């Protein structure tokens, strides 16, 4: 899952990035509201962590603009990205302004990191139906909550990036994923992996799946286009 942190406090954004990355999320960071907005137009996010007092475009303005854009795209009921608003302002009036602007949750600084992570998990779960809590593809089963994968009931020892890649393939069904599309989904904006990086992860997945009894072409290569599951 991909998360955008819009926060001008460098130390705080670095701490949040480290904690979220350790939990296997892909993280992009913006230091001002305008940069954050430009990132949302280039990438799809599963969650936005948004500081209220951003330069260039503050958090209230950003959130209002985001919700207006989603309404125009008919995403105001389903498909709207959750927004977790961060601020040092802790009055009831301030919270009402933030929530009325379209925020889904509101956390005041300073905050406990574990509580913040719990709120992040809760917001990410909102978009999942009960049928989506476990992903299946033939004998393959994925649990997005625990980041565990099994094939024929045998646990696959996957790296975080291998799990994320396999989850993306399952979620995409028979749709072909290009290498550039995979990179966009699984690596943050400040990383610069090459196509061979994706190929290497695919090879690792194939070897581990085959060791548990999966066919050689469980992950298919569509020459000149990319990859998909058989």
Automatic annotation (TrEMBL):
Source organism of the structure: Geitlerinema calcuttense NRMC-F 0142
Q: Which InterPro entries match?
A: CheY-like_superfamily, OmpR/PhoB-type_DNA-bd, Sig_transdc_resp-reg_receiver, WalR-like, WH-like_DNA-bd_sf
The record's listing under SUPFAM superfamilies reads: CheY-like
**Residues annotated as domain OmpR/PhoB-type:** 132-230
Keywords linked to the UniProt accession: DNA-binding, Phosphoprotein
In this chain the Response regulatory domain maps to 2-124
**The UniProt record lists the keyword Transferase:** no
Q: Does the keyword Phosphoprotein apply?
A: yes
**Residue ranges of DNA binding:** 132-230
Please identify the protein, giving its name as recorded: Response regulator transcription factor
Q: Tell me where on the tree of life, at the top rank, the source sits.
A: Bacteria
Positions where 4-aspartylphosphate occurs in the chain: 51
